[in-house]
Amino acid sequence: MNVHVYDTREMMGAAAAQEVAEALRAALKRQASVRMVFAAAPSQAQMLAALCASPDIDWGRVTAFHMDEYIGLAPDAPERFARWLDDNLFGRVPFAQVHRIRPEPDPAGAAARYSELLAEAPIDFVCLGIGVNGHIAFNDPPVADFNDPMDVKIVTLDDECRQQQVDDECFATIDDVPEQAITLTVPRLLRAGRLFCVVPGRLKREAVRATLHDPISTKCPATILREHAACTLYLDAESYPDA
């Protein structure tokens, strides 16, 4: 895994966005379209803002997905990940298509339909983060499966994951955080051609340390990123564990 460390969150976001933009431009020169998956989290905000401002990207040939969504929130709830991405990405550049996870009224059916959409063609790029418990997407340690036969599934969120949503100021209390979500599975994420993993902040330092140094295990699901052929990890000074 390639690891890049920057002094500030802003520098990290700008550098990651530059590499994502370069990869997009290169892919669009050699193929008709690109398919991408994006994480929705405050940790991604600086990178996405810089990516939206990047010049010379033909967004009209890019199809966007996101990697997880809560079950049980109102369709117009501001905490929904699709809503966050609408504000920070989907509504800011003219994608060819945006496929949002819509759990209502049948979460299992929604997961199956989203799996079918993802399977229509290869996923070129994934822009993701790492949770404080080491999760990637909503694959928390209790539910992560490196050999998962499913591409999209319903999961129960562990308490550490739910508390992170409060610490990120996305919810007022842990009781407000839904207990279940729809998520892309680990194998589905790893089948993408290239992964751009953006992880700022002191709260993520232990998860980053485990990702880089612990045995590859679902105890820290992000450790599996070390087995991907083209994964780059972008850190700031606060998240870098070896500083």
Automatic annotation (TrEMBL):
Species annotation: Devosia albogilva
Taxonomic classification: Bacteria, Pseudomonadati, Pseudomonadota, Alphaproteobacteria, Hyphomicrobiales
Residue ranges constituting the Glucosamine/galactosamine-6-phosphate isomerase domain according to the UniProt record: 8-228
Identification of the protein by name: Glucosamine-6-phosphate deaminase
Pfam name, any one: Glucosamine_iso
UniProt xrefs under InterPro entries: Glc/Gal-6P_isomerase, Glucosamine6P_isomerase, NagB/RpiA_transferase-like
Cited PANTHER family: GLUCOSAMINE-6-PHOSPHATE ISOMERASE, GLUCOSAMINE-6-PHOSPHATE ISOMERASE NAGB
